[in-house]
Every structure is written in structure tokens, then in C-alpha cells.
Amino acid sequence: MMLEMSRAAGNLHGQAAFKILARAKELERQGRTIVHFEIGEPDFDTPEHIVEASRTAIDNKHTHYVPSHGIHELREAVCDEVERTRGFRPDMDQILIGPGANPIIFFALSCLVDPGEEVISPDPGFFTYWSAIAYLDQKVVSLPVLEENEFRMNPDDVRKLITPKTKLIIMNSPQNPTGSVMTRSEIDEMADIAEEHDVYLLTDEIYSKMTYDMEHHSPSPRDGCRDRTILLDGFSKKYAMTGWRLGWAVAPAEVVDKMGLLLQTITSCTPPFIQHAGIAALEGGDECIQDMMAKFRQRRDVIVKGLNDIPGITCLEPQGAFYVFPNITGTGMTSDEFAEFALEKAGVSLLSGGAFGQHGEGYVRMCYANNIENIEEGLARLKEAL
Question: Which terminus in the chain has less CB density within 10 A, N or C?
Fold first, then answer.
């Protein structure tokens, strides 16, 4: 007889992308050729100057414990980056360095929201939000982000969802899974709402430098992250550093202190030689990002046109990140059915929109971090199979 695990363990859902990737890899081991659109990571190598900084740090013996909040040099570099990109300079005690941005989402939810309190979260939205909220026994309040509004969060809809139990609002722009980018006025209204209702605002800006024809804006300058705003960013996407696991947050000092204690409890610290790579990334300029985004723009244009040429599928042009979120309702299939069909019948691995929330039904997510030849091959397979 198996002992019963905790109720919290029963609420763990993980990330759908890794589950689908495992299935796709198993089909490849069986001899199938699969075109991959499931995992959200750049297909480019980490820039050499970043890699070299880590090598040098290892050679210089930066391989031991460091302060849990992060090394001074990287926290200083983050202050410089925030001043350059958001227009205000945070204090050093407002900076937390973490082993990726994902854990910091969990740290923030753990330190800011009690069980039973409400978190307003975009739907469809990044599955880590949903999984962490469920694990912590908090109440998720689903905010529909709709195709008719180009998948941007609508502040008027947020206002309708505020209750006395609301403790935190999560916003994400540019957004995963849709690639939407909120406008300046929408961003400003989100800051207004948080201030008016005295709630925390977690702004996930991991794709902040990955936009096309719209500028990225942040609500963080409103209070300089000193009162209620938690700014989350990192290195995985824009510097092609997914495997390095390095992220950062700017938040009120007392919040950073508690999140740092939680990080200390779980992982002790973020490896110092990886933090030195982060310094090189922030101080090395944005040319590598601009080169990568030029290629992503070409790929975006190919996949959007190709999807819109397939009967039963329509696709908006995303303004950020490297995802498309096509509407597949015209095929007559549910999102799960389409994802299964694509994998089994077409050899195309993508994600059901339902993995990102109930309002993701009728859509699928495709990551176009792939070369144009593979993108065209995947589109041809889908079209033929349909």
C-alpha cells in the first residue's frame, strides 16, 4: 500500500511543453522525423563573449558559495540595466538574482499571497503561473485575453475582477503564449489599478527586448518597484541562455529580503560563474539580440503567412517573443485533438492552447525558434495532413 502524498503534491501540473517534447523524442527514437514547435527557447547559441566570461570566472575559482541575493557586481549591473531600459535606478537591496526567472515567480507568489487569496492571471497565460498558484493553494482568477483585442490584457476587464480578496495581479508583455505586446496606455492603466486597489503587481518582462513593430513598456517606473511592483526579467530568451538558469527581479526591499531567504532555503545561491556570464550579457550591448530578432522577424513572417494559407486556420501577427497562437477552430477539432493530430499524423510537435488556460481552447501555440526550412516543412506537413 502506497503512503498518501501531500495535497499540494496533487496540485502540481508541471509544464506541458516538456511533456510533449518527451513524446516527440520517443517518436524520433522509433524512427519518425518530427518538426519541433513545442519548446520555447531560441535555437541560437549563447553569444561567445558571455560564454567566455563564464570560462574566465571558473578559471578564477568563482565556484563557491556566494550571497543568496546575488553577487554585488551582477546586482550593480542589473541596476544599470533598469536605469537604461526603464528609466529609474533601483537600490541595491531591491535586486534579487535567481536560478532562472521561473523560480522567482514561485518565490513571489509564496511571499506575497496567502492560501485562499486571489491572484488575477492572464488566460491564456504562461503555465508556471497556474501551476504555482495551485500548488500554493491560492485562488487563480482567470482574466481572458482575447483574440479580438490581439490577446492583450484589457485593464477594464481587470477592474471587473478586483475583489477584497485580490492580493496580486500578474501581467506579461510581451506575452507567452500569444506574442502580444501591451500598449503604453494599457500598461499605465495596469499601474493605476494596482495603486488604486493597493495590490501587488507582478510584471513578467522576460521578453522585454524581443519586440518587432511595437515598443516595450513597463509599469515599474510608476513606483520604482518600491511599493507594490515586482519586475521580473532574465537572460534565458533574449541572450539564448535557457540552460544557464539565470534571472533577476526588482521589488520592494522587504519583499526581496523574504524572497532571498526562500531562495537561500531552496537552492542556497545562484552559481557565481553563471552570474559572471550575466554581467557580460548586460554589459555587452544589444547587438546580439538585434541580430537574433532580425532572423525571428523573417521566421515570424513565414509562419504567419503559411498558417493563414491553410484552410481552417487563421493566425494573427505577433508583435513580440517568438510564438504564434493560431486559431484552429475552423478545422473542427479541439485544441487537444489538433495537437494530437499534428504529432501523430503530420509529425509536427506543438502545444494545445488548453495547456495555457481555458481561454486557450480553440488555439495552439507554435514556437518559431527554428530555421525557415523546418518551418516550411512543418507547415507543408500540416497542410497535407489536414
Answer: N
